[in-house]
Design goal:
Structural class of chain A: mainly alpha
Structural class of chain B: mainly alpha
Number of helices of chain B: 6
Radius of gyration of chain A: 29 Å
Shape of chain A: elongated
Shape of chain B: elongated
Distance between the termini of chain A: 23 Å
Mean pLDDT of chain A: 50
Radius of gyration of chain B: 19 Å
Number of helices of chain A: 22
Largest sheet of chain A: none
Helix content of chain A: 55-70%
Strand content of chain A: under 5%
Oligomer: heterodimer
Order of helices and strands of chain B: HHHHHH
Strand content of chain B: under 5%
Amino acid sequence: MENEAFWGSNWLSAIAKPPPAMSFASDDHLPPCALNLNWKQLLRHDVDLESELSSLVSSPSCHPAASADGGVVGGVIGRLGTICNSGEISVGSRLHSASSSCYSTPLNSPPKRNLSVPDYLVQGRRGFPGSVNPSPGGHFMPLPTDPWLAEDAARLSRGGGMSSSGFPGKLGLPETPGKLSRASSSKSLTGSRMVVPENGNEPWVLGAALMEMEMRSRVGGSLTPEQSEPGNGREESSIEEASSLRGTSDSNARKRKASAGKGKGKEGPLPYSATHPPNMTNENSVAKRCKTSETNAMMKTEQDGDIGRKPRKDDNKLLEPPKDYIHVRARRGQATDAHSLAERVRREKIGKRMKFLQDLVPGCNKVTGKAVMLDEIINYVQSLQRQVEFLSMKLSTLSPQLHNMENLFPKEMYQGQGTMPQPVYPAEMASAAYPYSHQPQASPPLQSIVTSGLESQLAPLYGLSDAPSQVGDFWEDDLQSVAQIGFRQH
Amino acid sequence: MDTDGKADAGLLERSRRIKTAAELGLARSSRGRHWSRALLLRRRLLISKEETTTTTRAAVEVEKLGVEDEPEEKMLQARVRTLQRLVPGGEEIMEAERLFEETADYIEALQEQVSAMRALACLLHGFQRTRGGS
């Protein structure tokens, strides 16, 4: 109704303070959303590429998580990696930006095997089901014509909007998978907000993979596991199949694969057990990872962030895979059994939430200690509730003219599903109207008067200062004005 | 006027409560949060619900907890319980992290609601002043 619209627009203009970014009510969810978009866009290109492949290759770990397409892609890519052997694994890992970097580190895979991956991908893209053999570990046809590679890489680069501007140029070379992996990796890097310049083939691949890994761990902290995991999961599962693991990185990749494969969105439990590689040469961290993935179904970004910072010193030499949300690296001098790790993860999560609450509650920054902060939070919530109570009482006295609102907004009271830009305001209208529904008195059509009054009154409003005293003053005035208004209306 | 007659404490109390409940319900339903669902349930079940005394002290909670591990832990637990009571539907939330999540969202919703109500009150007050004055 026009009145409704009037109110809405008025409130929008009137309310000085814009609605808080409720979206970051859980910063876990929202800020990553932007990243999520990037991630998904990134993966989408892969999806195009891999869609046909996915049909060919059954990715069992594809879970219908939020980023289902990404997951599928990841899974497919993972399969590609496995199918193409260890060589492919490196490529595949590059393809999927997520955790794959670790795999790619020991890129000792002979070029020829890498070639098969692009071939596979190319074929997939072109929809050559027949040529693709979904059997894992199978070698595929030799690298197809370079144009395909170039095309693929160019496509990936374009899709990813990557920094690899020079990439297409390189495609012309009879390179190998290095290019493709570069494209994919750069794409993934772009997705992860990283750009890795492309240099040579193998050495670059190694370097890129390393950097990707590092970035991943860093980015992982900021990214929600949502985005990274599905991709990681997929590729991990696929990589897992690849039996030829080269050293710890491979094993790590496999582990991550296994865990990620089963990841369901943010909190999918990761089945490490399935792919627990024999070569647990890595120290306790690897073992932890396996266990933690099983125990910590809900590892979140804080782990990533935390771990992302940590592994740098530990991992560089080992080229440890970046920490997915399921990977929790044991800190030095800390217990490393699954329980303590899970406990630590849980504590970190709680700590993160407490920090968020600290930001939300004014004046909490100086407070240290959980108990005191909790006290502050409790006080704040209580004070807010009291304020609402008080304001509603005040509004009830102020609003005999809102009788008509009852007719206008009856449904808002009951639905209020998030389509309203300012849900609170209609709520107030509705709530104001609601009490009157119980009143037998007739509601004079005060609409016109109210709207006109509001129009005239909009300007001075918003000194929305916390001034209970002001409200107190209003109280008496309102009681008087209510009578006056009532007289006016009738 | 009827409005005059209605402007008494009882009506105010009731209308205020209903208003509160409705507003909260709207504020929350836009997000689908746990506390919002709990609030809606609460509102539906009890249209004019009595305002729960939100003055639960942590000390009370501590007593309820009895002798637990360390006093520090007890204090924390007491506070967590208090928070659980404050946040609608909090009592059903078992994990601390979930509780904090809901608390953060609830706080944000409350803040929005308070600001909106304050603006509305100012507006109406100004309106009434004008009307009354003129």
